[in-house]
Amino acid sequence: EKAEIGLIGLGTMGSNLALNIAEHGHHIAVFNRTRSRTDAFVESAGSLKDSIVPCYSLEELAAAIRPPRPIIIMVLAGKPVDEQIAALRGVLSNNDIVIDAGNANFRDTMRRFSELSGSGLTFIGMGVSGGEEGARHGPSIMVGGTEDSWKRVEKVLTAISAKFKDEPCAAWLGTDGAGHFVKTIHNGIEYADMQMIAEIYGILRDGLGMGPKEIGKVFDGWNKGRLNSYLIEITAKVLAADDPKTGKPVVDIILDRAGQKGTGKWSVIEAQQLGIPATAIEAAVAARVLSSIKDERQAAEKAYGNIGVAKISGDKAALLKDLELALFAGKIAAYAQGFAVMSGASKEFNWNLPMPTIAKIWRAGCIIRSQMLDTMAEAFGAGGASTNLLMAPAFITMMKEAHPSLRRIVARASEVGSPVPALSSALAYFDSYRQGRGTSNLIQAQRDFFGAHGFERIGEQGAFHGPWGSGAGG
Ligand code: 6PG
């Protein structure tokens, strides 16, 4: 019996995806550059061994798979992907499908897609979210490629994906780079989500002087309510954990310097290219960058006399409620931005991205899965969020309830000196978005003053200039 699908690259993610596929009753042919890793993988597969076909050359791999052959490559993003595609070209034939399941930049995916088209082969850029655990037991899968290529792999991918109730969290989202673009925005939102959680943690730790265990309990409580989500759940778990070496809470022995591999930054770059504000995501990326310059921050702390964070006094229960609602409101604004970026990209790249489907396949399996995504799926399904998530009736109701808390928390945090870049960006975005009359009339006047750029008059057609007189014109 021929294998249904192939996989190259038996690192953690690749191995887990392969085991997941085997467990769902599909034969899978696997290949790794180092032979010993392939053998070790098959050895470790236990009872799933019978569904795995180890291959020791690309020729062997191609011969083992039922045509048209779908082959997942799970290698390091970047050059290794191009090298792997080049090597596969020699052994594959018409209609075979190369699937890049890594975190590729969608622009690379579009390039690879067009490079392969015409060669008879086709390419799928597949976003996979859920970390190692997800890959093994059910990730969220975002596919970009031709519809025909999707049909060839649909059965396997829906089988191995996470399920929300009975619905698979895998879908075809559009051609060429659509899947990897959506995964990138997923990660951008993931950055914003994580940053806002960290900001709230900062207020609890420094403003209220709470310890990790106590903060963990707060998050655990929130996870049972409207903030219910994977990231809140793991935050509670992380805060409860102790370091075996020192006996201290783990969070207290971890250096406050965040890493990043690029997807957050790409979301922000693309948002800027498209002219769509994604300020909460930008703030989250910038916060990671600032976190990484620890030495400089320590020097600045000295230079400014260790102002620290002042203690927050007052009704603690009321403050905790505000913090919960502030996080909720900030999160809504960040998602509104992420979805707006996707809708801009959808037009720009002619993808016709299905927003309700995207919200649906993010309800389980992926890192940002949450109760709120179910509400978003409903809102997009009902068409109420087509301009912006903030205009969906359900979200208008939620924001009306939550924004006063976000306002109070941002104000309070600013007063005591606890940085809240993502939460405050989210608030500023919301306030600007809901302001029918803004302040850019002044900017237009300034532009006209120094550069004669012209402005529109209220209620009149055409371009006008101001009565600036001498001194105008820069
Ligand atoms: C996921 C995650 C994952 C990503 C990391 C790391 O959806 O499973 O987004 O794909 O690689 O979370 O991202 P950073 O290293 O940039 O934080």
Automatic annotation (TrEMBL):
Keywords: Gluconate utilization, NADP, Oxidoreductase, Pentose shunt. InterPro entries: 6-PGluconate_DH-like_C_sf, 6PGD_dom2, 6PGDH_C, 6PGDH_Gnd/GntZ, 6PGDH_NADP-bd, 6PGdom_BS, NAD(P)-bd_dom_sf, Pgluconate_DH. NADP(+) binds at residues 9-14, 32-34, 75-77, 103. The keyword NADP applies. Residues 179-469 form the 6-phosphogluconate dehydrogenase C-terminal domain. The active site is at residues 183, 190. The keyword Cytoplasm does not apply. GO terms for molecular function: NADP binding; phosphogluconate dehydrogenase (decarboxylating) activity. Pathway: Carbohydrate degradation; pentose phosphate pathway; D-ribulose 5-phosphate from D-glucose 6-phosphate (oxidative stage): step 3/3. It catalyses: 6-phospho-D-gluconate + NADP(+) = D-ribulose 5-phosphate + CO2 + NADPH. Coiled coil: none annotated. One of its GO terms (biological process) is pentose-phosphate shunt. Substrate binds at residues 103, 129-131, 186-187, 191, 261, 288, 447, 453. Pfam families: 6PGD (PF00393), NAD_binding_2 (PF03446). Its EC number is 1.1.1.44. Catalyzes the oxidative decarboxylation of 6-phosphogluconate to ribulose 5-phosphate and CO(2), with concomitant reduction of NADP to NADPH. Belongs to the 6-phosphogluconate dehydrogenase family. Homodimer. PANTHER family: 6-PHOSPHOGLUCONATE DEHYDROGENASE. This is 6-phosphogluconate dehydrogenase, decarboxylating. The lineage of its organism: Bacteria, Pseudomonadati, Pseudomonadota, Alphaproteobacteria, Hyphomicrobiales.
